[in-house]
């Protein structure tokens, strides 16, 4: 995040400001490796990685009981194409061409999964070359399309997941993905949606990650303020194009082995390479620890849209609404939906605090069950963080210019309910 965004987020998180600032630099470029499942608790992860926004790597022991680790991989650690075709052969999947640059990413097309697997086999057979280029299956919503499949279980450390909790509730989208690609496939330089956290587990294969702590991306921008497509490109050494590149820190480099999970902090830009034929499970997620960063990101995005169409401000009666529509088309959310996002999260926690958890809900994989697993104090923590962001949203001038009559309950009433629930829970 830039300095303004960082200042914005630490204004909310003043109680953890000293540890948040540590996210800009890790001594000696060290990334912690978490070895043992039984000796690492959610509280450890919350204290040492979520709040300070530091990366870490979980050992393969954390994924060894996953169905995909058992069934999607051959005895020698390669993708089990036969099994995958049997289970998912008729699916249609999103595929990116890693050899083509389109704006600041790779162009995508939809392909039958069986066609992609046939391409992948031929690509390997031909020495990892093809006239079609290097194709990478990315952002496949496999869990949503095949909910009955035994693929993986989300580790408890990542269970406070507001993004997927909300989008599951409105049944519109989710941020759970499968990636599959041959050796040499890669993802260009980027930060994740809404400046969310992400976790990525290798089912098979190996990845190399280049990570830049939040704020470092400012030094990587060209003279026009654009981020690079590829941070390893020789052109970054040209000061006439990238005038501040020599002020940047070298990236943190991680080589992720099969079975391991990498935790990527909120707002950290990164570039990723598949060193072997690789399959991975990826989630993007937001929670009480980084929701203020998401809110600051949305304010920055709206400000950028407003600058772009500022010349139309006077002749356009609904200029503010048009800015919201453009922002939503670019980011996937506008201010009113962000309000509804906060409302759904808050009401789920209030329900548990006020009514407890019945046996039927606790037996299911539901948001309320996850809240119960993490404990009532965590629910209070979530509500406190929601109150801070909701208070800022309600006072925001761009938000107040919108037609808020459709919001139910009104922001003031929701804030009152949240504060009352917190006070009651702490009695």
TrEMBL record:
Span of domain JmjC: 143-302
CDD domains, A to Z: cupin_RmlC-like
Annotated transmembrane regions: none
InterPro entries assigned to the protein according to its UniProt record, in alphabetical order: Cupin_8, JmjC_dom, JMJD6_ArgDemeth/LysHydrox
An annotated GO BP: positive regulation of translational termination
GO cellular component: cytoplasm; nucleus
Cofactors that this protein relies on: Fe(2+)
Single annotated GO MF: metal ion binding
Protein's UniProt keywords contain Metal-binding: yes
Keyword Cytoplasm recorded: no
Pfam family, one: Cupin_8
Catalytic activity reported: L-lysyl-[protein] + 2-oxoglutarate + O2 = 4-hydroxy-L-lysyl-[protein] + succinate + CO2
Keyword annotations from UniProtKB, A to Z: Iron, Metal-binding, Oxidoreductase
Membership in a protein family: Belongs to the JMJD6 family.
UniProt name for this protein: 2-oxoglutarate and iron-dependent oxygenase JMJD4
The species this protein was found in: Psophia crepitans (common trumpeter)
Gene name as annotated: Jmjd4
């Amino acid at each position: 995040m830039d300095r303004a965004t960082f200042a914005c987020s630490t204004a909310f998180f003043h109680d953890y400001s000293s540890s948040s600032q540590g996210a800009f630099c890790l001594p000696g470029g060290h990334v912690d490796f978490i070895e043992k499942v039984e000796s690492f608790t959610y509280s450890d992860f919350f204290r040492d990685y979520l709040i300070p926004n530091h990366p870490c790597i979980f050992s393969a022991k954390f994924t060894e009981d996953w169905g995909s680790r058992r069934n999607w991989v051959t005895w020698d650690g390669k993708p089990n194409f036969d099994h995958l075709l049997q289970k998912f052969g008729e699916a249609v999947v999103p595929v990116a061409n890693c050899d083509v640059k389109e704006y600041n990413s790779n162009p995508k097309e939809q392909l039958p999964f069986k066609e992609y697997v046939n391409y992948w086999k031929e690509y390997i057979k031909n020495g990892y070359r093809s006239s079609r280029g290097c194709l990478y299956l990315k952002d496949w919503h496999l869990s949503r399309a095949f909910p009955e499949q035994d693929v993986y279980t989300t580790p408890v450390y990542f269970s406070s997941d507001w993004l997927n909790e909300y989008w599951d509730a409105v049944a519109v989208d989710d941020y759970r993905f499968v990636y599959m690609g041959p050796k040499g496939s890669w993802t260009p330089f980027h930060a994740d949606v809404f400046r969310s956290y992400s976790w990525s587990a290798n089912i098979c294969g190996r990845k190399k990650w280049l990570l830049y702590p939040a704020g470092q991306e400012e030094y990587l921008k060209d003279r026009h303020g654009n981020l690079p497509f590829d941070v390893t490109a020789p052109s970054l050494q040209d000061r006439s194009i990238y005038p501040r590149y020599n002020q940047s820190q070298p990236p943190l480099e991680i080589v992720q082995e099969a079975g391991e999970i990498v935790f990527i902090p909120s707002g950290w830009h990164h570039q990723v390479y598949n060193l072997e034929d690789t399959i991975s499970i990826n989630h993007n997620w937001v929670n009480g620890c980084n929701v203020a960063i998401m809110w600051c990101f949305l304010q920055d995005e709206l400000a950028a849209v407003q600058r772009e169409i500022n010349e139309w401000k006077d002749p356009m009666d609904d200029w503010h609404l048009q800015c919201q529509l453009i922002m939503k088309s670019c980011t996937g959310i506008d201010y009113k939906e962000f309000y509804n996002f906060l409302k759904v999260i808050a009401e789920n926690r209030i329900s548990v605090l006020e009514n407890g958890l019945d046996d039927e809900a606790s037996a299911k994989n539901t948001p309320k069950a996850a809240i119960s697993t993490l404990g009532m104090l965590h629910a209070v923590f979530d509500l406190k963080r929601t109150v801070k962001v909701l208070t800022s949203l309600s006072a925001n001038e761009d938000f107040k210019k919108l037609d808020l009559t459709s919001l139910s309950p009104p922001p003031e009433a929701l804030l009152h309910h949240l504060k009352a629930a917190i006070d009651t829970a702490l009695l």
